[in-house]
């Protein structure tokens, strides 16, 4: 008897640069992912946000759980730059994290450079 396919929350247990993005997804580590991503010290996670969704503290909860290992948080807000809400920016500051919103493309490029420099960087990429 065959076992049914088990669908799990997307997670890649490591750090990897983004090889390409667009058309609703990202390519990294010889894999592809459709949807948004959180790039954290503990790994790469699927993220349920889409362009235009509110940027709330709850959406970044996993980031705050790993705050001790993060100095810079890049937020790719989609095609256009969106400012972070004041309460979210304050929460990043309280956790010792410098936050920087930018378009997803700019965030991907910046993340790849900072990752190559072994910086304590994390990123949230809203899919484009």
TrEMBL record:
Organism of provenance: Pararhizobium capsulatum DSM 1112
Q: Which SUPFAM superfamilies match?
A: MTH938-like
Q: Name the source's superkingdom.
A: Bacteria
A Pfam family of the record is DUF498
Q: What is this protein called?
A: Mth938-like domain-containing protein
The record's InterPro entries line, in alphabetical order, gives: MTH938-like_sf, NDUFAF3/AAMDC
């Amino acid at each position: 008897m065959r076992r049914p396919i088990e669908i799990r929350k997307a997670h890649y247990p490591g750090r990897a640069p983004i090889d390409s993005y667009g058309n609703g997804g990202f390519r990294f580590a010889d894999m592809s992912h459709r949807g948004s991503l959180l790039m954290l010290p503990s790994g790469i996670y699927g993220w349920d946000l889409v362009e235009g969704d509110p940027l709330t503290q709850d959406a970044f909860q996993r980031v705050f759980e790993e705050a001790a290992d993060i100095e810079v948080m890049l937020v790719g807000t989609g095609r256009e730059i969106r400012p972070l809400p004041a309460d979210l920016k304050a929460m990043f500051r309280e956790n010792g994290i410098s936050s920087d919103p930018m378009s997803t493309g700019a965030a991907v490029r910046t993340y790849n450079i900072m990752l190559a420099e072994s910086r304590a960087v994390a990123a949230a990429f809203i899919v484009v």
